[in-house]
Specification:
Strand content of chain A: 5-15%
Strand order of the largest sheet of chain A: 8-9-1-10
Oligomer: heterodimer
Structural class of chain A: alpha+beta
Structural class of chain B: alpha+beta
Strand order of the largest sheet of chain B: 11-25-12-23-22-28
CATH superfamily of the largest domain in chain B: DNA-directed RNA polymerase, subunit 2, domain 6
Distance between the termini of chain B: 87 Å
CATH topology of one domain in chain A: Gyrase A, domain 2
Largest interface: A-B, 48 and 40 residues
Strand content of chain B: 25-35%
Distance between the termini of chain A: 62 Å
Order of helices and strands of chain A: HHHHEHEHEEHEEHEEEHEHHHHHEHHHEH
CATH class of the largest domain in chain B: Mainly Beta
């Protein structure tokens, strides 16, 4: 009998304590729970992967047909529905709309403090504080009219205004209300490009975070952002880094590691599916997330991920890029152990799944005697019941070369 | 818009290139005046009304077209905000004093092509005309095509339903052409008792000659579960009386060819012993001349014409053994079809070969699986034929021919169909003509008034009684008459199953398609279902349609050669005679062969079990 998971045991015990149940009753509940639990377990050799794939792809087809959009709601527009799901499972390095949900510590649950943190996070670029620019082509410098009100808001005093441009090899000075930016090695060709790098230069906040929205979730103030940079946000005082998340799975992987990335895959796909009004059992998603992260790194489902790295040559060739895999296998002299399902279906053998994973070995004396006589053709006889175990090797190709080898 | 110009154009003296049928012929000044003058001449009948002229100020082009192949459409000319087609002219046209040509000659109606249309500003209705308009539509209905304009109360339906409806009108079985009994088209259907619609859009008198359906009594209600999901319950007794009965005609053709060397096909009952001879029984129905007699019942693979052709190549061995140089090439009825020989035509082709055409006729009585549709994009499949004694009935004893499920209405919003039912009922009861043309027809309150005056409820509802129990239904049921079509999709043409049958030569897998007696493919997704259930043995059994035994060399793992005569297998690669027989799919064996042909050596490591 299988043991119950600690969580269920704990829950039953808590319940028993609360209701002040007798030891006998508690035992009985535990027994029933154990029975139900073992009934709901998968049997050995049951193809959970296929069931998980079907359970995920059926709602996914539904999603292609109807994707809900929120129009006009306050907050940030994030990719949702099938495109987002594909993003997760294809393990894209950068999501289309990276966002963070920042939660704060208890002492910072005050609108003013929240605003302050939000301001700290949002990236301010030079163009936000510059009203207009003039490029001087004769002396090769850029004259910018500054928005001092804005600078004051950002907490930059007038006298320090020329320090906002933090580019290398640049001289800045303040001439009245105007900021003069002069590159040290300027030339006529690049001055225009230089103007844009000045405008795009970073003044304050965290790089890459273009939008910050403060909303209230229940009693708690939360900050949602467009753009993601976990490492820097975690460093800000007041940010509860245990509850702050990003939707960029690779970033989570870099900052917090694979286990966190696995959880991120799970949470993100569950959220995306449920947001569409569809439901999938979490275990299927867990299986998928596990599969994507077993190696300690995030692998995509598909050609360059799991499907493209299968052990069997035949399976890879039957999926995509047939020629590539066949040529590669023949050059390397690969061997296909034929342990999977698809290989065996292709060869019309009993696949080692479900009922096909087991063999009955009988020790009946008469049969044993017969076996010795008809040994060579057992395969024909046993063809259906127990498949001939075969390994398959592919050796060096090119007929010319092969012919040469034969002669030797 | 016509006549409006940009600031830049006003400053410049206006010029334009003139293209006559695509060729540059002139450069002119004041193009607007030029175009106006030509149009005036055309309207005054000084030049042909088939000339179209258009001016494109933005390109400085004047395009004149006089050639054939342009789609043109008639429009009423508007001058100074007034239609030239006055009430006086309308009355004259109605009384037959003037005709269409008169309107064209008098410059009241003109035909525009696609290019000249660009210069026109067309009002949909006469009420909409402003002083900017240049033309007005003859009638708003012209926005529709022929099929769509036949839909009654068209504008009450949602747009997509009109599309579906118009498409299905084209699939209706009716009168395909008037001389269909004398024709030899490959296949066509004809309805036995076609009717004109009771409720009709007053559009075309030509379509009246080609009706495509019948008027039937409909009750909008559920009948147990038999009309769920667009299924249709039909009155069996109505079917027995000839409802939706049709004939299916198919013509088979064969040519008595002549070959090089004086050889030719022979049309006669094939002699036994000829290659491909089907056995005496197969030719029993043929007359002495080898051609089947009219009114003979035939079914799949029945021989219609006995024919033998000379073999193309005669190998020396055959010549020596004295096998007759002939091959059976009889014409047979297609797989899955049957009927009665309707007519036999014997003629000649233009090459003076004898040509035989045999038309088979098959009576098609509506059966479960046939497709019916109203004109509102509401199609359905017959799911049950109920004898009339079990059908619901009214207190007057009226029994519906068809039970239509009300669930088909809300999401599709085919309100026009409900109106047709009500109007159909009013029309059948009163005998009064009710027009249902799009945009301009008898309005709903008027139909309701008519129903009231006939002593019926104006909403079309009636008390119905269950034919099986005789009990009154607790709710009133909406009943009415509607025009229904039998569509050209009948189960008889589609039903198909296979247990054994032909396989393709290359892969030894079953053929595809009904015409080739093909198998029904268990696809990849279905395969994954079996995998998902862990049914490994079922999976193997399902996919072993092409299983074979192949000899594999135990030493090198290559495919060996088996000599059936000596009953001995040898490996061509390593000369070993140690061979294991392995069961696999033929398609896999083929894959191995193909890989080998590319120079990839494939070894199978074999183990004893």
């Amino acid at each position: 009998m299988t043991g119950l998971p600690p969580k269920i045991v704990r829950e039953i015990e808590e319940y028993a304590e609360r209701k002040k149940l007798s030891e006998q009753k508690r035992q009985k509940i535990m027994e029933t729970a154990r029975e139900l639990y073992s009934k709901s377990l998968y049997d050995a050799e049951e193809p959970v992967g296929v069931v998980a794939a079907q359970s995920l792809s059926e709602p996914a087809t539904q999603m292609t047909m109807r994707t809900y959009h929120f129009a006009g709601t306050a907050g940030i527009q994030v990719t949702l529905g099938l495109p987002r799901l594909l993003e997760i499972f294809d393990a894209r390095k950068e999501p289309k709309t990276p966002t963070m949900t920042i939660r704060l510590e208890k002492d910072y649950q005050d609108i003013e403090k929240v605003r302050k943190i939000a301001e700290q996070i949002r990236e301010v670029k030079a163009k936000d504080a510059i009203l207009s620019t003039v490029v001087d082509l004769t002396d090769l410098f850029i004259r910018c009219r500054l928005n001092f009100e804005k600078l004051e808001e950002l907490g930059i005093p007038r006298e320090k205004a020329h320090k906002i441009i933090k580019l290398r090899n640049v001289e800045t000075s303040l001439e009245g209300d105007e900021l003069v930016v002069k590159p040290k090695n300027a030339d006529l060709k690049t001055i225009h490009k230089f103007k844009y790098s000045v405008l795009e230069s970073h003044i304050k906040g965290i790089k890459g975070i273009s939008q910050v929205v403060v909303t209230k979730e229940g009693d708690e103030w939360i900050i949602t952002t467009l753009g993601s940079n976990l490492a820097k946000v975690f460093a800000i005082e007041g940010v509860d880094y245990t509850r702050t998340v990003s939707n960029n799975i690779f970033e989570i992987y870099d900052v917090l590691g694979v286990e966190a990335a696995r959880n991120a895959i799970m949470n993100q796909s569950k959220y995306t599916i449920e947001e569409q009004g569809l439901g999938i059992d979490i275990r299927y998603i867990m299986l998928l997330a596990d599969l994507m992260t077993v190696d300690g790194e995030i692998k995509a489902i598909g050609r360059y991920g799991i499907s493209g790295q299968k052990a069997s040559v035949l399976v890879r060739a039957s999926f995509e890029e047939t020629k590539k895999h066949l040529v590669g296998a023949s050059v390397r002299g690969e061997k296909d152990e034929l342990r999977g399902t698809i290989e065996n279906i292709m060869m019309n053998q009993v696949a080692p799944i479900g009922t096909g994973a087991f063999e009955l070995v009988g020790r009946i004396p008469e049969l044993a005697g017969q076996k010795a006589s008809g040994e060579k053709k057992t395969k024909k006889k046993a063809g259906t019941a127990s498949a001939a175990k075969k390994g398959k090797t592919k050796t060096k190709s090119e007929s010319g070369k092969k012919a040469g080898e034969n002669k030797k | 818009m016509n006549g409006k110009r940009t600031r830049k154009e006003v400053q410049k003296p206006r010029e334009a290139s003139v293209y006559l049928n695509g060729k540059l012929v002139a450069r002119i000044k004041e193009p607007e005046k030029f175009v106006e003058a030509i149009r005036k001449k055309r309207r005054n009948n000084l030049i042909s009304h088939e000339v179209n002229i258009a001016y494109f100020p933005e390109f400085e082009d004047v395009v004149i077209n006089t050639v054939h192949g342009r789609a043109r459409r008639p429009l009423v000319i508007v001058e100074n905000g007034k239609s030239k087609f006055t009430q006086e002219l309308k009355d004259k046209l109605a009384s037959g004093k003037i005709n269409w040509n008169y309107l064209i000659q008098q410059g009241i109606v003109e035909y525009l092509d696609a290019e000249e249309e660009e210069n026109a500003y067309i009002a949909l209705r006469e009420e909409d005309i402003t002083k900017d308009h240049t033309h007005v539509e003859l009638d708003p209905v012209v926005i529709l095509g022929i099929s769509a304009s036949l839909i009654p109360y068209m504008e009450y339906n949602r747009g997509d339903r009109i599309n579906y409806g118009a498409k299905m009108v084209g699939q209706a079985i009716g009168i395909p052409m008037k001389n269909f009994l004398a024709r030899t088209d490959t296949k066509y259907n004809a309805m036995v008792y076609p009717q004109l619609p009771l409720i009709q859009a007053d559009i075309s008198t030509i379509m009246d000659e080609y009706p495509g359906g019948q008027n039937i009594v409909i009750a909008v209600m559920c009948y147990d579960g038999y009309n769920m999901n667009d299924a249709i319950v039909l009155n069996k007794s109505s079917v027995d009386r000839g409802l939706f009965r049709s004939y299916y005609f198919r013509t088979y053709e064969t040519v008595k060819k002549k070959y090089w060397g004086g050889q030719e096909d022979e049309i006669a009952i094939p002699e036994p012993g000829i290659r491909g001879h089907r056995g005496e029984d197969a030719y029993r129905e043929l007359a002495e001349d080898g051609i089947i007699n009219p009114e003979t019942p035939v079914s799949s693979d029945s021989v219609l014409v006995g024919k033998t052709s000379p073999l193309r190549f005669l190998s020396g061995e055959d010549f020596a053994t004295g096998i007759e140089n002939k091959r059976e090439t009889s014409m047979t009825v297609r797989y899955g079809e049957s009927g009665i020989v309707d007519e036999v035509f014997i003629t000649e082709t233009t090459d003076a070969y004898q040509l035989l055409k045999i038309r088979i006729r098959d009576q098609r009585i509506p059966e479960i699986g046939d497709k019916l549709a109203s004109r509102h994009g509401q199609k359905g499949i017959i799911s049950l034929l109920v004898p009339q004694e079990d059908m619901p009935f009214t207190s007057d004893g009226v029994i519906p021919d068809l039970i239509f499920n009300p669930h088909a209405i809300p999401s599709r919003m085919t309100v026009g169909q409900l109106l047709e039912l009500l109007a159909g009922k009013a029309r059948a009861l009163s005998g009064k003509d009710i027009d249902a043309s799009a945009f301009n027809h008898m309005k709903e309150p008027e139909i309701r008034k008519l129903m009231k005056s006939l002593g019926f409820r104006d909403d079309g509802k009636q008390t119905l009684y269950d034919g099986r129990t005789g009990k009154k239904y607790e709710v009133m049921i909406f009943t009415g008459l509607s025009y229904y079509m039998k569509l050209d999709h009948m189960v008889a043409d589609k039903i198909h199953a296979r247990s054994r049958g032909p396989v393709t030569l290359l892969t030894r897998q079953p053929t595809e398609g009904r015409a080739k007696r093909g198998g029904l493919r268990l696809g990849e997704m279905e395969q994954q279902c079996l995998v998902g259930h862990g049914a490994a043995l079922v999976l193997k059994e399902r996919f072993d349609s092409d299983k074979t035994m192949i000899p594999i060399c135990k030493k090198c793992g290559m495919m060996a050669i088996h000599d059936v005569v000596k009953n001995k297998s040898t490996c061509a690669h390593c000369k070993s005679t140690e061979v294991a027989w392995v069961e696999t799919a033929y398609a896999f064996k083929l894959t191995l062969d193909e890989m080998m042909s590319m120079g990839v050596m494939t070894n199978l490591e074999v183990e004893e079990v």
